[in-house]
Design goal:
13 helices; 3% strand; two-stranded antiparallel sheet; 241 residues; single chain
Length: 241
């Protein structure tokens, strides 16, 4: 494991160069945090592998965004970040979704391949790489990547205080997620999106339609919708956060 002084040096180098290999070293050095937090939330209605994938993604994002000049330790910064993403995961997938068995089966294979690839290379494989490896179309890979086993926040779980709801045992960090959702600024930024992006937001996040349904309505591919959605989310995050 890299010591504190070397970690500080690597973060400074990554901020200066953006070198992916440096980022990967930092991720590998702190991967134990993701594993500990994933285990902490396991056994509450979601598979450990699902939680681990979310934690890995949060760790990578945390390394990429961390600013050592803020004067806080990386662990102090990243633990709430990973915990928050796991909490949001429970929120986002709390509704039951019925999927074709082929998508569920593919999602299991994709999850396993992503985890193996990350362990070996320190980063996630591309959609194209997964498509070639698993022999499935890129659109199916995208759909499988978006699937995560749903769980209700009303699920009964056991804690030190007895039984309660899953929602009650997930720590509420600082209500930042709720403030983001309720912010009037969000509505303002959505109005700045181009007409197609606004339609995607309405169909996906207001009407709750799937990417395939949105694609059919707009006359575009599911992959186009997926890319547009990621672009929209990044725009809103940059504007609001």
């Amino acid at each position: 494991m890299i010591d504190a002084k070397e970690t500080e040096r690597l973060f400074a180098e990554y901020r200066r160069t953006g070198d992916i290999s440096v980022r990967n070293k930092l991720v590998e050095n702190h991967v134990y945090i993701a594993e500990i937090l994933a285990k902490k939330f396991a056994g509450r209605g979601v598979e450990y592998d699902d939680l681990l994938q979310v934690a890995y993604e949060a760790l990578i994002s945390g390394v990429e965004k961390f600013n050592p000049d803020l004067g806080v330790q990386f662990t102090t910064y990243v633990i709430p970040t990973i915990t928050g993403m796991i909490k949001n995961y429970f929120r986002d997938y709390s509704r039951s979704v019925r999927l074709p068995r082929r998508i569920y089966t593919l999602a299991v294979k994709v999850r396993a391949e992503v985890n193996e690839y990350f362990k070996e290379h320190g980063e996630k494989p591309t959609v194209k790489q997964l498509s070639q490896k698993l022999g499935a179309s890129e659109e199916l890979i995208i759909e499988a990547l978006e699937y995560r086993a749903p769980v209700s926040l009303d699920t009964t779980v056991k804690s030190e205080d007895g039984e309660g709801r899953l929602y009650d045992v997930i720590p509420d960090l600082n209500n930042s997620f709720e403030r983001f959702e309720d912010s009037e600024s969000l509505k303002t930024e959505i109005r700045k999106l181009d007409p197609t992006e606004q339609k995607v937001v309405k169909l996906r996040f207001v009407e709750g339609k799937s990417q395939s349904e949105v694609g059919k309505i707009l006359g575009v591919s599911q992959m186009f919708v997926s890319r547009a959605e990621r672009k929209i989310v990044e725009k809103l995050k940059d504007a609001l956060l």
